[in-house]
């Protein structure tokens, strides 16, 4: 038997983002010899140009709103407070550098070989680095993530993408966001609260097509009240002008206002091109996502894929959970380990946040017909009421069957982002309306509305 060379591994991972790192750490815990290839910053999209800097900006914008509330409530806030962006961004980036450093320490401690290189799949057991070095592995984990799409219209290259938002050093005076999904809604709320005048141009008839229509209706009202312009059914034909003064032209030839910044948020595409996947025998779907089965197995034996590159629910905790389970199966002797993709909770960090788990009312009616029972609570959180602000919260339960099993929980309002997690556990375990009613409320909170709905 030949002795293994230093280039032989039990696992080679392509991508040091949420899924790749989680998979590498879990495999190493099971005793696997692991190499991880990452040409960019550790942490991938989430840490560098996604969840983390986004949440930091969202927190800043929440503070801006709170300062305004405070002044309404009698605090002496001399002038209209302005955010010192460079100072805030320095704090944000310091926080992110701390995450990089922590990953490096953990990789080192786990004995994982980190190679700062782009990888290419040669066959089921061979990965080639950019410099031509070939690594041999028993198993390969593909976690190369996704990148923002640009619409195929003239001038699209003049506009920014979400990555560019994180390079801003001030709030641009006027901003257009193209797209009506997660990113558009989140960035619009942040920028408007930090001093920009924002317009959203969505192709769809409403924002957030996957979310519960009633909550989205309420969020849209909030956004209009905050001064965000909402343009639905918009068909973008071109982007024109000079940097700093850009205009959108629609399919009827109408050119609108000038914007200092246009940000495209029309979805993301899997990073599967040019890395040898199809040549090696990894099947892709029509959108370029890696096709995987319930165990994250690709069409090529010994090659698994997780996260955005599979086009499955594209959220960080999903990539992490799928990677850990796949590695438990491959290296941990848990043959049945796989992620259940049902009832994954999610939060859209809008203003206020929208948190959801399970079926929307429309999905429940499609699945269960008339046997759907909806409970809702509309209320003003105490701080909003004290400041005589009109922002209301809307909480909604979607129940099915005679036993009123809770099939969906939808929360729009202050604190919704922090309230949902615990209720998501309960929903996953088969929560019923009676269980909620059996639970004593915590008063006075917004969360208590969930157990008081009748
Ligand atoms: C603006 C924004 C906000 C978001 N906010 C949230 C949020 O609040 N909550 C949430 O759950 N999700 C959020 N997401 C989604 C989340 O960031 C992604 O779902 C998550 O990062 C996916 O993890 P991943 O490991 O699949 O890919 P990524 O994190 O993108 O990592 C992929 C890595 O692979 C590397 N790579 C690419 N090609 C190769 C190659 N050939 N060889 C080696 N390495 C390669 C890349 O450099 C990258 O580092 C947000 C996304 C965006 C864009
Ligand atoms: N809080 C979070 O968890 C969070 C935040 C941001 C992003 N994400 C993840 O990242 C993913 C990508 O976000 P996203 O907002 O780019 O995608 P998205 O899929 O949420 O929304 C894309 C939007 O663009 C629209 N669109 C598509 N093509 C268009 C075109 N040519 N012209 C105009 N509009 C067009 C779609 O109708 C849709 O409204 C999300 O689906 C989500 O999974 C999560």
UniProtKB/TrEMBL annotation:
Pfam families: Pyr_redox_2, Pyr_redox_dim. Its cofactor is FAD. InterPro entries: FAD/NAD-bd_sf, FAD/NAD-binding_dom, FAD/NAD-linked_Rdtase_dimer_sf, GSHR/TRXR-like, Pyr_nuc-diS_OxRdtase, Pyr_nucl-diS_OxRdtase_dimer, Pyr_OxRdtase_I_AS. PROSITE patterns: PYRIDINE_REDOX_1. Disulfide bonds join 46-51. GO terms for biological process: cell redox homeostasis; cellular response to oxidative stress; glutathione metabolic process. Residues 344-453 form the Pyridine nucleotide-disulphide oxidoreductase dimerisation domain. It comes from the Bacteria. Its EC number is 1.8.1.7. GO terms for molecular function: flavin adenine dinucleotide binding; glutathione-disulfide reductase (NADPH) activity. FAD binds at residues 55, 119, 144-146, 308. The active site is at residue 443. One of its GO terms (cellular component) is cytosol. NAD(+) binds at residues 179-186, 267. Keywords: Disulfide bond, FAD, Flavoprotein, NAD, Nucleotide-binding, Oxidoreductase, Redox-active center. Residues 9-323 form the FAD/NAD(P)-binding domain. Binds 1 FAD per subunit. Belongs to the class-I pyridine nucleotide-disulfide oxidoreductase family. NCBIfam families: PRK06116.1. This is Glutathione-disulfide reductase. It comes from Luteimonas marina. The lineage of its organism: Bacteria, Pseudomonadati, Pseudomonadota, Gammaproteobacteria, Lysobacterales. The gene is gorA.
